[in-house]
Amino acid sequence: MATVNTVLGPIDAADLGFTLSHEHIATGSAGMHHTYPEFFDLEGTIEDAVIALTQAYAEGVRSYIDASTFDIGRDIEMMREVSRRSGVHIIPATGSHQAIPRVFRSASPDAIAPLYIREVEEGIEGTGVKAGIIKSASDRGGMTELEEVVLRAVARASKQSGAPVYTHTWSPDRVGEQQIRILDEEGVDLDRVYIGHSNDTRDIGYILGLLQKGVWWGKIVFQAVDTPVCRRGKSEPRLLKNCWTPDGATRSCLAMTTPCPEASLHRRCRTSVKAISQKVTVSSAGMCCRSSKSWEPLRQKSIR
Q1: What is the distance between the alpha carbons of residues 44 and 50, in angstroms, rounded to a whole number?
Q2: Residue 128 CA to chain centroid, in angstroms?
Q3: Number of domains the chain is built from
Q4: What's the domain range around 112?
Q5: What span, in angstroms and rounded, lies between the C-alpha atoms of 26 and 6?
Q6: 246-287 pLDDT, tens per residue?
């Protein structure tokens, strides 16, 4: 049986249960709440997360993938406490988001890849907790030269470690296509690639094109709040309906992430997983559904 790395140790994949594919307990900057603890309500964030995930557990959620890399504030000890207290498995990430370290500017993919491999095979920051996914990010305007270097490093780390690739994208600029091209050049098995934020567009041809390449598309975000950051998810029910094809139904990864604007950190960073407890009853397809039958509750409640 295949195993999956969680913050409390590896578990059998069969024990994942209902899994949300892209969440964050909190986001910020690397080391922010250790360096400036007065700017971040760590205990309040943990309490919020435990409450939200405990309720989510009662609704059937058993696992989620935390897509926070170190540069956006990944905190393994916080995740471990939340997981222990809530009972929800949390799968951590390695890789980089958009706040790529300056020292990577002169580095090659082969120099960066071993850093990610170590976090998958040996552990993260001396905790012994091993990453379950490897992440890369590009956004508006397309992939930069440095982001391509990192993505190639992610690809090489994935091939050696076996960990799946997760990406952050900006769908209106069809960034997922650029990422797939690089990953394909690197020889990555596209069946082990998740192209994130694929719902941020109304271009059905773009989405179907991703699916035809053999990747997984995510994430179907039913936002719980109405802010300028979150309004990009408003087209999702129609997008889901139009992509309701055999491939679309079986290669889709659901999540509930509500972006947590950095400006709110000093007031108490409300956990993005709060959205789970508010909306979980309509997301009963879970993660990476392989049966369109399991999407039926979501289709009935969300498609109009």
Answers
A1: 10
A2: 21
A3: 1
A4: 3-302
A5: 17
A6: 555 556 676 655 444 333 333 333 343 444 334 333 232 333
SS (H, E, C) 30-54: CCHHHHCHHHCCHHHHHHHHHHHHH
| Alpha-carbon span 75 to 21, nearest angstrom | 18
Report the sign of the C-alpha dihedral through residues 158, 162, 163, 164, in that order. Answer: positive
Q: Cis omega (within 30 of 0) on the bond before 219?
A: yes
Report the distance separating Cα 88 and Cα 75, nearest Å.
16
For the segment 284-299, what is each residue's pLDDT rounded down to a tens digit? 233 333 223 333 333 3
**What tokens appear for 269 in the block?**
């960073």
Indicate which CATH number applies to the domain containing 133: 3.20.20.140
Beta carbons within 10 angstroms of residue 74's beta carbon: 25
Write down the pTM of the prediction. Answer: 0.81
- Specify the DSSP element, H or E, that contains 298: helix 296-302
